[in-house]
Design goal:
Number of helices: 8
Largest sheet: 6 strands, mixed
Number of strands: 15
Structural class: alpha/beta
Strand order of the largest sheet: 6-5-4-7-8-9
Order of helices and strands: HEEHEEEHEHEEHEEEHEHEEHE
Strand content: 25-35%
């Protein structure tokens, strides 16, 4: 009986050992299989990320085992087709799925921007969201621009240069279509015209067409105002920045001033102080003529009979810088 028990125990131990060995083999196989699956997934993920690198809008990949899923915005059908072809050609991949928004390829590739004072409107296409962010000058007007594929090389430089130039206009319009830029509008004077030219200077030769009207032709300020107690006042020439015939008439206390004048839009603002001084003695004056430039003013006054000319001159002396008075 004891011998039989010993033999039975040995058999149990042998069976247990074989079972443990079998479990070890199975476990080792499972570990090897699992480790190999992770290694393959890592390799597929790396290859998929390489395949989408450099896409215009940053398409992303998700890898599960050997399956690849891509999502995002494709810059036209050509980019989408090329991307999926690269992914399907990858070794070890199993299935490729995609959730792509494919942008329309636009031709001609254009944007239109208008400016009126500080208000902008815009319509057309832009190549990327990053480019939209660079259009801070447009403010909320940039939000209505649509993404589109097909922007020619250098198109963005034309837009940015055109917007910089448009900023120097009082009002105007910018159109960029493929490789051409058209700028029209109204600017104050030569300083603004020079700033516009500087903003466009780096753009390719022959790409820019502009038609800018200047409110001020840049000629120096030089004007004359003549007054007669019997016929009223007239003016001619180019007035300084900041006042017009109505302002001069109001300063003199007159209902109006006849004549045609130009108006400076740049340079030093004019001073109405002399006309206010003249108003104080206008009741004693028969005539006066003022010849003025930006640097000097000459006033000749004719007084009514019995009026103290010296007193009138004393009232007007020093009324404006560079003024000479003869009564």
């Amino acid at each position: 009986l004891r011998r039989n028990k010993s033999v039975g125990d040995s058999a149990v131990r042998k069976g247990l050992g074989l079972g443990l060995l079998a479990l070890g083999v199975v476990g080792l196989g499972w570990w090897g299989s699992s480790h190999n699956a992770h290694r393959i997934e890592h390799k597929v993920r790396h290859l998929a990320e390489e395949a989408v690198a450099g896409t215009v809008h940053g398409i992303t990949t998700t890898v599960a085992g050997r399956d690849i899923h891509v999502a995002g915005i494709a810059d036209g059908q050509a980019e989408a087709d090329a991307l999926l072809a690269r992914l399907n050609a990858l070794p070890a991949r199993r299935k490729v799925t995609a959730d792509l928004t494919v942008l329309e390829t636009v031709a001609p590739y254009a944007i239109d921007v208008t400016k009126d004072a500080a208000t902008f409107t815009a319509a057309g296409h832009i190549p990327t969201e990053a480019f939209r962010a660079d259009l801070g000058t447009l403010g909320d007007a940039a939000t209505g621009l649509a993404l589109g594929a097909g922007a020619p090389e250098g198109w963005g430089d034309l837009v940015k240069g055109g917007l910089a130039a448009l900023g120097h206009l009082n009002k105007g319009a910018l159109k960029v279509s493929d490789a051409t830029l058209t700028l029209t509008g109204e600017a104050n004077g030569p300083d603004e015209a020079a700033a516009i030219d500087a903003a466009l200077a780096a753009l390719p030769a022959g790409s820019v067409t502009k038609d800018i009207a200047l409110l001020d032709d840049g000629t120096p300020v030089a004007y004359a105002v003549e007054y007669s107690a019997s016929t009223g006042a007239t003016a001619s020439g180019k007035l300084p920045k900041g006042f017009d015939l109505a302002a001069i008439a109001e300063a003199l206390g007159l209902p109006g001033i006849a004549g045609e004048v130009k108006q400076a839009m740049t340079g030093t603002a004019g001073d109405l102080g002399l006309f206010a001084k003249l108003k104080g003695v206008l009741g004693q004056i028969e005539t006066f003529k003022l010849d003025a430039t930006a640097d000097a003013q000459s006033l000749t006054v004719g007084v009514q009979g019995g009026v103290d000319g010296a007193a009138v001159q004393a009232a007007l002396d020093g009324a404006a810088p560079g003024l000479t008075v003869a009564v």
